[in-house]
Amino acid sequence: MTGNRRIAIYPGSFDPLTLGHDDIVRRALKLADGVVIAVAERTTQAKDPACPLDRRVEIISEVYADEPSVEVVQFSGLLVDFARARGARLIVRGLRAVSDFEYEFQMALMNRSLWPEIEVIFMAPATNYTFLSSSLVREVASLGGDVSAFVPPIVLDHLVEYYGPRVAGR
Ligand code: ADP
Between 20 and 30 A from 121 (CA), which of 59, 102, 107, 115? Predict the structure, then answer.
């Protein structure tokens, strides 16, 4: 993914990847030639990761195995350094509600002061995903609730392995 192609970086912890994340990836693909899902160990917001980073990268890669425009990589360190190394000037983040706004706005301005060439775009998901978060999926799954409506099938299989068949409504 080099040359003149416009690459968007979509960073996050994706623990797990939800249909809300997938919705943003697909919207970003309308604006960019390729999307790099940059999976971080943890961010300032994510607590108690349920799934190890390398496993998360494996699962998400499987979700997008048939999508050549989507690449999944793990990253650590400064996001702007990662973006610059990839030749990408576009960062995509999802905005669900006003509650996301303050943190996202601060991060966007900080990243731009670290590298003025970066642009951050915020995308709103489909309405039915605005309530969805990885932490909520983890919480419901850990209590044995059915999360099959909220994650891609490959992610659901992994959650079944981890939490048992009830999380798939079986
Ligand atoms: P982080 O730990 O960096 O917040 P997440 O994996 O929770 O990472 O989220 C990554 C990005 O995806 C963030 O921009 C977040 O706002 C966005 N996001 C998460 N869930 C949804 C959703 N249901 N709809 C739209 N965007 C979402």
Answer: 59
